[in-house]
Structure prediction request, 145 residues.
Amino acid sequence: MKKILFLTILIVFLLILLSGCNNQKSTKEQSSISQEDLNKEYEIREKCGKQSEEWFKSYQQKYPGDKFTYKNHYSDKLNKCFIYITSFQSGGYQTIRLVDVNENKEYGSCLGNVGDEDNFLCKFLDKDVKDKKEWDSFIKPYLEE
Prediction:
């Protein structure tokens, strides 16, 4: 009886030990897959950055008197490259745009006086937006993940 109990405990212990070894192997496999995915993601983001820079240079040439800033973001969820452009015109006006770089599609824009965000005129996906704060909330998912 003691031998059977001992053998049963030994078999259970060996099964637990062996299943742990298999899990370690699959974890190593998962980490190599994750590294591949990370490399692909890095390449996509780098490509988005380069495309955004080219798009921005072309856009900037159309408005030589304005001062600009921009940032780009690749959205994994939407599989799109976005650029967020802020331009400052003479007279204290400011224009902000969110554009899909690859499709050259404007998702939204705002126009108003610098420092007076309550009185900006904004549109998002061709619909009027009540103010810049609401517009910021609409574009936030496109620029963060």
About this structure: The chain has one domain: 39-143.
